[in-house]
């Protein structure tokens, strides 16, 4: 029988390494929802006997099938228990934000400890944690990305052709410190101390979309793309999403996601790909915005639509085994914290 270890940074005590305050708010709810959904899916696998979860002792504990909770009381506690669990588990999934090297650090520790990861490894995480490197990597391989460049602090000279632009931390996660800047004059409004390095890229109008892929040594499978619901205040805060897309848009998003995924080094497990679909029906204006080398909130809706167990597909993909996925035509809308609202709408046939 197998043991699965799921590490989700916010619920697992990762915040001990940042400050003494327990996590709270929407990010905690989002992290807990992803952890719970993934844990339930692994527990549904007959060959899995135990799902191990590190648990910040300051938070209310979950009650999940086959769970084994390991309380965490300090930074040292979190580090020691993490290393022990990745060594003991049959498989490990790591979910953490990319900023400040939080995800990369834990993946590297897991690899050094000899853990069997069925989520992305350090080579992919390191690449995707640097938005400029990711953009350059994709562009060199023929995947469309927005024009842009990186810099430290406010530059003295700026390429005016990039405006309107989007400015974001080089290692950001989600919409943290992201903002639209319509002209060089608005650069004075940016707090450049929020990040040591930044990327500025030309704003691309269109439909924001995310597409998840599950991959491994034998290739990858794209899951139904989701429309992203973002705030309209120029900060691009993630509010949730909806799926499925109209068929013509889903085909474009899938083609772009697969092209991006095929370019990534040692793709393993679940990876999210954010993009913008432009107005051209032939997809000429479609671009990849960034790569999320971890589970994303859309997993919560996709598992509802899936006719097979997505966690089992991750396990099989990482092992180089074949797997089959199909999805219900049911329409789902979900919030950033994973709350699902469904309707009777089916996949469009256009």
From TrEMBL:
It holds the Pfam family preATP-grasp_3. Keywords: ATP-binding, Nucleotide-binding. This is Carbamoyl phosphate synthase-like protein. It comes from Anatilimnocola aggregata. InterPro entries: ATP-grasp, ATP-grasp_PylC-type, MfnD, MfnD_preATP-grasp. One of its GO terms (molecular function) is ATP binding. Residues 135-319 form the ATP-grasp domain.
